[in-house]
Amino acid sequence: MSQVYPLISISIDRGGTFTDVVATVEDRSGVHRMETCKLLSVDPEHYPDAPSEGIRRILARCAPNSHTPPGALIPTAHIKEIRMGTTVATNALLERRGVPSALVVSRGFRDILSIGDQSRPHIFALQIEKAKPLPTLVIEARERVRLLPPNSSGNEGSHDSEVLEPLDELDLEAKLRKAFNSGISSVAVCLMHSYTFSDHERKVGEIARSVGFTNVSLSTDLMPVMKYVPRATTASVDAYLTPLIAQYIANFQMHFERSLEGVPLMFVQSDGGLTSASSFFGFKAVLSGPAGGVVGCSRTAAKEFGPDVQVVGFDMGGTSTDVSRCRGYEVDHTMQANIAGTLILSPQVEVHTVAAGGGSVLKWENSMYVVGPESAGAFPGPACYGRGGPLTVTDANVMLGRIQPKYFPSIFGKSAKEPLDKAVVEQKFAELTDIVNASLSSGGRSLTPVEVAFSFVVVANEAMSRPIRNLTEAKGHRADEHVLSVFGGAGGQHACGVANALGIRRIFLHKLSSYLSAVGIQLSDVVEDRLQASKLVVEPSEKFTNSAKASLDFLQQEAVNALLQKHPSLVASQVAIELKLNLRFEGTNTALATPVLGTTGNLSPLELLASFERAYEQQFGFVLKNRRVVVDEFWARATTHFKGAERATSNKTFDTTVQQYTSLVATTQCSDEVDVYFESAGGWCPTKVYDGGRPFSTSQLVGPAKIPGPAMILGDGSTVIVEPSATAYVTAEGNVIIETNRIIENIGVERQPLALSVFAHRFMSIAEQMGYTLQRTSISTNIKERLDFSCAIFDPQGNLVANAPHIPVHLGAMGAAVRWQRDFYNDEWKEGDVMLSNHPRAGGSHLPDITVMTACFHDGKIVFYVASRGHHADVGGTTPGSMPPFSRSLLEEGAAIKTLRLVRNGVFNESELREVLMEPGEREGMSGCRLIEDCVSDLKAQVAANQRGVQLVRSLIADYGLDVVQAYMTHIQSAAEEASREVLKTIGEKYGSELSCEDLMDDGSAIRLRVSINATAGSAVLDFRESDPQVLGSTNCPTAVVHSAVIYCIRCLVGSDIPLNQGCLAPVTILVKDGSILAPDEHCAVVAGNVLTSQRVTDVIFMALKAVACSQGCMNNLTFGDQKRAYYETICGGSGAGHTFDGASCVQTHMTNTRITDPEILESRYPVLLAEFEVRRGSGGSGEHHGGDGCKRSIMFLEPMTTSISSERRVMEPKGLHGGGNGTRGLNMMHHFSRTEGEQVVVKNAWNEAADILWSNSSSSSKHSSGNVLAIVRKHPMNIGGKNTVLMLPGDLLRIFTPGGGGCGALPNV
């Protein structure tokens, strides 16, 4: 049978609003041309399915003999292949519209998805809203596997395991059958350590299929890697989405003759690679749409500018903006990402999303312009759509003339036949401008509606620039060294503005920029990935080389076979192989994908180590000395280029490309001229319009061409604005290259709302980038993984200007630390000096929290400060972790440093630092810093973070001048002060001028607060002077921490996104009494005051202000260790209910927000078994709105460990509000096992005993023996109280029951 022409290869991006189709049409002579089509993704009045309708329209245009009316089956003779990216999975995840599913987990972990890493998403939100788990039902399997200690079997190349409890198949089958009979037909399975021992999971899969489940998602098949929480989440995502995707594909195929039989149908996955429709699974589909855009961004820019070009992708849509980073043809990938509140473990393109798009709603709030995060959506859409929508970024562009209604089709309004409505935009901006002018101080010039619209556009550009700065900074790159590749329907209107904000001078827009996701899908490779978990240590030995080669060879063959099986037309010679090892330094969690050069036959351990260390130093700024490098996973990727997308291999660069066009004379091919507002040019400017090729236009702009700004280039589905200072070049292929000259806004020292909004973003961005630098360059788990640190900038008086939202307990205290150092050194603080302090009397919180402070000089004077505070794993003292629960003096808690000149004249003072950190070891019964190398390295990272902050503020000063930057440091605090005063006015008017609250610590010490509010002035006095005296214990709370609690509470009550700074405290007077528990003498122990009393102070403030019921009031600090290692965690509990919301369960509350270690990571690094981590149901207080529940966390020890618990609310219950019930108090229980014969403990028998305690009401003694070793024979439960240090022996079980939150509002009488 002869081939039918034309042959059409179709690539489709099915987005949330629009579906884009790009087709390559090949005629009989082999000539190719491109065709495009854009249509609404949902338009049920005209077609049932957008992708198939787009194909029908392409065929009607290119192969008229194949034309069919809507509704008829589409012929396939001319279709060569179909490639598709879709947001179906993304939208289903966002809108929670997947299929009902079940999840099978190991017993003790039924709530692992709802607990997650225990952090709350927004630290200032009293109503904590965590993403709900996807499974309808969770089933606990009676089984347990543990990892064996290293070298126990002599096999270092794998994760060796032991079955502690065989799978109870009968019990599981009964549970699965009950779930199936309830209507659930899809199930996910994730058992502890199944990445290394998959037998139990596979057996569960067999049972589930025999019961009748039609979809079974095994975590060991999906992602066989260590990390229980993301692996369980990934499996649940797959079970939730895969059946939905399968139905979507089947529905799509139904629109074609013979259901597309014989036509290759492929989908782009989250990693940017293509796979067959039969292999398109839910967990790899979530970023299908954005992945196509990232690939398109990478490959089109690399083709234009060469393979070494660094690119930032800027995809601005209607609801949000996605940013990404690439280097040439290489796309940045990540192994896990949080998408719609759901953590997914899978190779995926690294995309950061900001809630600012064309449909983002504009608001005037707290004297600042605010863009988003709310969106107008597709309906009603922006105000200019004529359907009653709010003002949005799109409307601002209409107001400024950057969107011209006459160039858009008449598809708007209630009739869907009207043009964009500029009149309603002008009316709404006039109304908003009246509100803005009314709130501005009298005497200033009133703003015009156009100026207000322009201000919103600038703020939107700033909001979209922040994630780009953070994305590049986090990888150790500078944003201004990249090309900005712009795509998406709205991107061209903001390209110059975003580039200007970032200092980027090079912009690239592909000729099909509004179709770039579809173009990327067209250019994507077909891929198959295979991964294998490992714990091999990389070393130059034959043993390592042979083991690694065997693993890689196996994975390579698996990937190639899978690719050839799914695509029979391929032969092995067409397949390319990429081999990588995910490597990390031992003791860290950060793994980097390190490529193997060539084949496994050339595998060189030394080259791997060198390549890994180069990548690590690029990203983190240093390498860890004397640390082994461990293989987390082996990774093989089989790839083939179906499309033959040619790749540039020349030495092309952006500059050499642009040089071809700079000598051109400005083109005269304009088709129109309109007025567009550009503030940099003084207002309205006549702007030439160039037609770059619109489907509803007759004229075309022909390249190469040079277009000086200001200009408007109309493309196929996009509008590009070229600002007056920029020059655009249209290439011969029709792409647009823009060279910009950065323009710095002319800002005076008087407060202006636009400048205030811009500086709010700039200051916060600096604090965020300091945080990224600290996380990037630190080595400890506490800072790098748990994120227990904060970074901030301060004005010359030491007042907080901007603090990235890290750890609340650090917020107010760091300013006190900066001011103490400033006053102590005065003129002795020299340029190049960096100060260190952790002493409570010098603004510290507790001794493990070390603050590093740097002054920035200008013309010989200090003009601002930056500081970073991090929680260090150990600073010496009586117990490992420096958190002794029974300390009676500060000396017992470790090295107490009021001040140390850590850097003098730019030289790091390491010898004196080591001396002061080891000094506690000179006292009897104490130790110096037990992890001195980690501590020194992390302090160097804090110095580096501060230096980055200094560089960024100096850059700001260079742009705007010192007087302007310092003026806005003051203005930004004034704005926060005004917002705080409004809150206090509201509280005073609602509840009166005199309020009070008292609560007791577990030792009976009272925290008493009287609040006097002046509702007229919006001010308040918070008087804690009646609180009880300081104690001979560790719960004394430094006054700086009290200030942190107050500023945190005020910021929470503001309820909107204001910058957190010293202005929040300006209307508040805080009174404490020296010698009280809230103002202890400097010799007093304070370690628990920072982590426990701070929570009680917060509860008292909120209760006095009648804002929210008490939360768990504790951080549940647990440490354990020996001479070789130390571990520290804080454990979640219940949050308090509010007037309109329930409390959240198992979440970090108020003064902390640190993450908890993943269960599998915990068990792989420490000799413990996490037996149980669940919600403590019913522990939240009752009420109209109930309090959140606490948790149950049970740990069995396998080696002797000194263990300390420091907790509160074990005596006093968390109080309810307005008649709501109290939360249940916490409890700490130790089950110590006596041994009457022998000393060795059989772990399997110990596990049986633990299971008996956890899941049985039996209290009888039991006996288990193995050979001649008599194991555990008797269990003795013991309440160890809220604070204790105990020696846990092998087989001992520690159970921690954390408190619930209080309820709010009395239950109605029944």
Automatic annotation (TrEMBL):
Signal peptide span: none
Domain of life, per lineage? Eukaryota
Q: Where is the Hydantoinase/oxoprolinase N-terminal domain?
A: 10-211
One function term, GO molecular function aspect? 5-oxoprolinase (ATP-hydrolyzing) activity
Annotated Gene Ontology cellular components are: cytosol
Domain Hydantoinase A/oxoprolinase: from-to ranges: 231-529
The record's section on Pfam families has:
Hydant_A_N (PF05378), Hydantoinase_A (PF01968), Hydantoinase_B (PF02538)
Q: Which family does it belong to?
A: Belongs to the oxoprolinase family.
| Name of the protein in question | 5-oxoprolinase
